[in-house]
Amino acid sequence: MESVNQLLVALEVHRFDFCFIGAGYEKEVDAFLKVNPGLAGRFNRKLRFHSYTPDELVQIAVRYGEPRATVIDSEARQTLHAVCQALRAHVGADDVNGIDLMQNGRFSRNVIERAERIRDSRIAARYRTDKSSVSRRDLAMLSAEDIRSAAGAACAEKGFCLSL
């Protein structure tokens, strides 16, 4: 409450040389604006950004993997796209789609990070049985199964049952 009161003072005292931009999920932003009766009236514009499309989420995943030396093969990309389409089709409480329930673009990052751990465990197990069987390509490539397992775990963590 102290922060909100200070913000209101700053918005009033510095109204011509102060800009405040608040960002977040719509429900949480609305709750924030209701904390103080004078707060909502100070914000005269509200921008809504649409959820990412399945194509965009796959693109985010690929771009996130690149500097990490992670390559997502075409079958894995198709798997991620199918997962994202299933999320897009799901409508949860308060008419929130599955992509937003999974935190929109953050979902791609979470899936890649989980898939990398799954890949690393898979490669380590293979290396223990046959040291010559692991190539540089193996160390970089995410498979469709890596993505499927990672996406399933990420969704399960949020209470969303994903079947592919």
Largest sheet strand order: 1-2
User: Tell me about the biggest sheet?
Assistant: 2 strands, parallel
Class from helix and strand fractions: mainly alpha
Mean pLDDT rating: 90
Distance, first to last CA: 46 Å
**Principal-axes shape call:** elongated
The fraction of residues in strands falls at: under 5%
Q: Can you tell me the residue ranges where pLDDT is under 50 for at least 5 consecutive residues? A: none
Helices and strands, in order, run as: HHHEHHHHEH
Beta strand count:
2
Percent helix range: 55-70%
Structure annotation, total helices: 8
> How big is the Rg?
21 Å
Characterise this structure.
The protein is mainly alpha-helical and about 160 residues long. It is built from 8 helices and 2 strands, in the order αααβααααβα. The protein has helices at about 1-15, 25-35, 55-65, 75-90, 100, 105-130, 135-140, 145-155, and strands at about 70, 140. The protein has a two-stranded parallel ribbon with strand order 1-2. α3 (about 55-65) packs across α4. It is elongated, with a radius of gyration of 21 Å. The model has no long low-confidence stretch (mean pLDDT about 90).
